[in-house]
Amino acid sequence: MQGLALLLLATLQLVQLVQPLPLTIIHQPNHALHAPPPGTPHAERPDRLDAIMDELTSSNLGATIITSSNPLARVESAINATHSSYYLKNLRKTVGGLNSDTYVAPGSYRTILTATSCWLSALDLASSYSGPAFALTRPPGHHATKEAGMGFCLVNFCACSALEFLKENENKRVAVLDIDVHFGNGSADILKGLKRARFASVHERGIYPGSGESKAEGENVLKLPVPSGCLGPEWLEHVNQALEFVLADDPDLLIVSVGYDALSEDPLAGLNLTPDNYAEAIGLITGRFPKSRTFFGLEGGYALSATATAVRKSCEALM
Ligand SMILES: *[C@@H]1O[C@H](CO)[C@@H](O)[C@H](O)[C@H]1NC(C)=O
Ligand SMILES: CC(=O)N[C@H]1CO[C@H](CO)[C@@H](O)[C@@H]1O
Ligand SMILES: [Zn+2]
Asked: Which segments cross the bilayer (predicted)?
């Protein structure tokens, strides 16, 4: 009798162990403080995230939606470790344009702190085997290099998270996959040469930021440009190749910088993906690496309704 009870208990515990954890979405309540100056229309605007959150909250997704709450000192130290103090000093005192396409509003630095905090919360979940998690933040971050914001990006949240993980785990490795339609030059810039990190980007050839050609960028960085007009199957093949590269040295964590500007509706780029192609990419990713140790963070995506649909389908694929 006692033996049976023990067996039952053990089985229950086993079921709990293999039961996948639900998706956690981390959202950024103050994101609208980062807004373009009145009267100057800009693709990177608060509506982007509002449309996504509306779509997610009105669907029966069943994901846990939380906000982040990291101590300010941790968030700042992750940012300080990623960008030069010269650049950050300049960023904090700038209001207006950092350059012609990248604006800074009075509240931008505060939204940057919460966005970083959201990515760190997603990191904490995935690094304690409690993923998948998805940080839904803006503006995007993957073009920001150590020394400069550009391409709508002020701080590189993806790089902040990867470096934080490497700092907290001395012997572990991190894999970073970037599937925004633009080459993640900032993430490549910050991660190249790091022994315990691998980075791969799948992006449209010949568009912004112009440095996405497949020339070598150090042994741990792979650039996989696809031609304009590219459809789902060819793109997915490249995503698969990118995954193979970043997973080759048995990483402990996978970070996915996901931009939805490869959708055919996107006004800024020329690929022809559908929302279902994003769900298929998520399927490829979770088929090759445990989703409990994976987290996603939002980069671009400027066609509001198609992006919202594709984010929902991505989340459904993660459930
Ligand atoms: C980050 O750097 C800024 C400016 O150099 C400094 O004021 C701040 O105290 C630093 N924060 C942490 C947690 O290191
Ligand atoms: C690693 C990398 O490609 N960095 C590039 C990012 O884009 C800027 C602007 O095009 C270049 O100056 C960097 O070299
Ligand atoms: Zn992009």
From this structure: none
